[in-house]
DNA sequence: TCTGAAACATGCCAGGA
DNA sequence: TCCTGGCATGTTTCAGA
């Protein structure tokens, strides 16, 4: 499927604020309300628009401490990877987990309240998972940029 | 501000799907439509709910290649940091940028189409920024988990 | 694929418990 | 903080260009 410039503009607007009404969007895009409506429906049907969500202020809900954890497994058989991946997916503190190339196997993005909570997480949850070789934690000092907007 | 169990449940529901109507939410939470409406407005007013957005399928919009880039600056004076940070914020390929503790200064999450596009980005954009010491790229092999849901 | 209008659902605001 | 009720505003469908 090809996205024309109007689709791209529409997706940018929805990525910045999905609460805009179709009427508001129609004005910005010089289209009718129905035309905008149908474009959105098409993008949803095609799966280009994955979902509509609310983003919270992490600080205000007491999850402002972000840690990146680089992790190695002790073995790399398919079974080990599968088990580890299904376990790590269950952990709510882990927002993101990627299998990566390079010196370590996985990179995890973890959100908790503070250092104390992270220590607790590390000791009681992460390092109790099977097959974990080593971990290396990198702490966030400052969030410079954090967006979900993909520019097409 | 304190969040009661109903608020937490409401936030979880909105974080998974913000398109739910207040009517639908009222049924799930055993409240009236207005009560749900007022709780949501309160959460928006307080800034707990930061924003409503659409999330796209990165693969389908040709931005499925994710790279983590660890970066060092050549100097660490405040001016250098500020300039670098304002420049990196402008780059649409950089979804996230954190100032971190440890062996390097920044960790960047970058999305592009493929390896070729990444090379192009690295050569023409990232390494042309001032004061950059070294970069180290880690490529994603597989996305195990990627959520925006913060469990409170 | 677009427009415009009509039917339907939802959001939103009173007023009161 | 909650509820009931009603008006305003939104979404969605459909015929026609």
List keywords for this structure.
homodimer; 152 residues; alpha+beta; Arc Repressor Mutant, subunit A; Alpha-Beta Plaits; 2 domains; 4-stranded antiparallel β-sheet; 30% strand; DNA-binding
What's the quick description here?
Chain A contains 5 helices and 5 strands, in the order αααββαββαβ.
Topology, pairings included?
The structure is a homodimer of 152-residue chains.
Chain A: H1 5-16, H2 22-29, H3 33-45, E1 49-56, E2 65-73, H4 78-90, E3 94-100, E4 106-112, H5 115-124, E5 132-146
Antiparallel strand pairs in A: 2-4, 2-5, 3-4
Helix pairs in contact in A: 2-3
Chain B binds a DNA duplex (17 and 17 nucleotides) through α3.
Which radius of gyration of chain A do the C-alpha atoms yield? 20 Å
Task: Fill in the CATH topology of the largest domain in chain A.
Answer: Alpha-Beta Plaits
- In percent, how helical is the residue content of chain A? 25-40%
Structural class of chain A: alpha+beta
Mean pLDDT of chain A: 95
How many individual β-strands of chain A? Answer: 5
| CA-based shape of chain A | elongated
Main beta-sheet annotation of chain A: 4 strands, antiparallel
CATH architecture of the largest domain in chain A: 2-Layer Sandwich
CATH class identity of the largest domain in chain A? Alpha Beta
What would you say this structure looks like, in words?
- Two copies of one chain form a homodimer.
- Chain A is about 35% helix and about 30% strand.
- With about 150 residues, chain A is α+β, with helices and mostly antiparallel strands.
- Chain A has two domains: about 5-45, Arc Repressor Mutant, subunit A (Orthogonal Bundle); about 65-140, Lrp/AsnC effector binding domain/regulation of amino acid metabolism (RAM) domain (Alpha-Beta Plaits).
- Chain A has a four-stranded antiparallel sheet with strand order 3-4-2-5.
- In chain A, a hairpin with a 5-residue loop joins strand 3 (about 95-100) and strand 4 (about 105-110).
- Chain A is elongated.
- The two termini of chain A are about 15 Å apart.
- The mean pLDDT of chain A is about 95.
- At the A-B interface, helix 1, strand 1, helix 4, strand 3 and strand 4 of A face helix 1, strand 1, helix 4, strand 3 and strand 4 of B.
- Chain B binds a DNA duplex (17 and 17 nucleotides) through helix 3.
